[in-house]
Amino acid sequence: MAAAEEMIERVTQAAAAAVRRIADAASADELEKLRIGLLGKAGEITGFLKSLGQVPAESRPRVGQAVNAAKEQVQGALEERKGALASSGQLRGKHWIDVTKPGIRRGAGHRHPLTRTLEEVKAILQSMGFRYDDYPEVEDEYHNFDSLNTPDWHPSRDMHDSFYTKSGNVLRTHTSAFQSRAMRAIKDPPIRAMTAGRCYRNDDVDATHFPMFHQLDAIAIDRGIHFGDLKWTLEQVLRGLLGPDIRLRFRPSYFPFTTPSAEVDVYYRGKWLELLGSGMMRPEVLRHGGLDSDRWQGFAFGMGIDRLAMRRYGITDIRLLYENDVAFLAQF
Ligand code: DAH
Asked: Is the peptide bond before 244 cis (omega within 30 degrees of 0)?
């Protein structure tokens, strides 16, 4: 009897000690060594199983139960530790994290570089009287294309460029889709309005392309608005955002919804950055917004936020913006 009690005691203690060592294992290798030492042929727990034969028959069931319980406990601890090491143990395949170590305090979180850039542009435009509203990301073809004088033969309507839903809607390919909605919502000029957010195009992913990206679009409509107003506004916005030393380059361009149209590059940190499209709103677009195009004139511009954020923060691969890797984001 006494021998049986002693064995139960020993196996129980052995299991408890094993569980502690397993919880401390810092790698899969270490864990495997522990498993062999405990449950392998010559393992500690296996040893108890083997010696069951020497236990007197009347106490064998009780001792056997204790040994089996110890084995299950050890197996469970091994499984659990293995899962913990696999799931939180690896960060980008390189660094091991010991989840059982005491925590290291992290500072409070902060906003994503994209959000920060976007909010700064927004704030500057708001200070100039542009109101901000959110508009749909899932759009219909009318608002994303037709109302912007984009005929159905236009390449941007190609199925390869745009994502369509089963019901025939389109994920907005640009924030310009907001223009006719904003005119109809606000109704009476003078109108100064903007929106921003996610846009989608079916691009192959590489360092500068991602199927989802961010834009900000703005319109200003009043009597006698002219190209000089557009230029002045853009200069104010970009100086406010990037500093007084930048230079702007207006390149003649084409957009179906503006005429004349210009692409604007900004010389910033030693390089030209293609940043935005702009122009005077076409009469057709004003009319789609319910306005009398003989009475009102407007300018519009749309800028890419991702590239701007990348240049500001020295990020060279757009994919990094979307990986939500805390180690990466903590740098900004
Ligand atoms: N929507 C255009 C694009 O995605 C950019 C753009 C050009 C927006 C001219 C505008 C504009 O508002 O007037 O490339």
From this structure: no
Spatial CA neighbour of 306 closest among 295, 296, 293, 315: 315
What sign has the CA pseudo-torsion 120, 126, 127, 128? Answer: positive
* Lookup result for tokens 């240049």: 311
For the stretch 244-279, pLDDT in tens is 989 999 999 999 999 999 999 999 988 999 999 999
Can you tell me the distance from the alpha carbon of 152 to that of 66, in angstroms, rounded to the nearest whole number? 77
Class of domain 113-329: alpha beta
Report the SS3 class of residue 65: helix
pLDDT per residue as tens digits for the range 4-49: 889 999 999 999 999 999 998 888 889 999 999 999 999 999 999 9
Please give the number of the atom of ligand 1 that sits closest to the Cα of 300: 13
Cα 298 to middle of ligand 1, angstroms: 14
- Residue to probe by mutation, ligand 1, list 139, 149, 212, 278, most atoms within 8 Å of CB: 278
What is the CA(3)–ligand 1 centre distance, in A? 86
Amino acid letter at 247? R
Q: Phi/psi at 163 (nearest 5 deg)?
A: -95, 125
- Distance between CA atoms of 71 and 40, rounded to whole angstroms? 11
Helix (H, G, I), strand (E, B) or coil at 85: helix
**pTM score, whole prediction:** 0.70
Q: What is the DSSP string of 131-194?
A: EE----SEE-HHHHTGGGT--TTSGGGSTTTS-B-TTS-EE-SSGGGHHHHHHHHH-SSSEEEE
For the chain, give every domain's residue range.
2-92, 113-329
